[in-house]
Design a protein that fits this description.
The structure is a single chain. By secondary structure, this protein is mainly α. The protein is built from five helices and two strands; from the N terminus they run ββααααα. Strands 1-2 form a two-stranded antiparallel sheet. The model has no long low-confidence stretch (mean pLDDT 92).
């Protein structure tokens, strides 16, 4: 696995840049990852990110947009506003999780 240095952290990533080690993620890293894709994190962003982080260990995969919308109470339209164009992929990237299944 490739290793990237972001800020002062060395992180393990896959070929597409998604973190491969759950424990390497932290909130300052998330802010740096978000900045790399042009997103400044707000409380609404953090609600989605924290839901993804808490949901992942019990399910072993990144939650779908529908799951985030239903269980975290964030409308899908709002997820597209928060994470434009490819919200599931961008949320997973910032949350330090694998790319969701079904994403191209």
């Amino acid at each position: 696995m490739p290793v990237l240095t972001i800020g002062s952290a060395d992180i393990h990533v896959d070929a597409e840049g998604f973190l491969t080690e759950y424990g390497e993620w932290n909130e300052p890293l998330a802010e740096q990852l978000a900045a790399q894709i042009g997103i400044e994190l707000t409380d609404e962003h953090w609600k989605a990110i924290r839901f993804l982080r808490s949901d992942f260990p019990s399910h072993g995969e990144t939650a779908t947009l529908r799951r985030v919308s239903t269980l975290a109470g964030i409308p899908i339209k709002q997820l597209f506003v928060l994470f434009p164009v490819k919200p599931a992929k961008k949320m997973a990237y910032v949350a330090g999780l694998p790319k969701p299944r079904g994403c191209v």
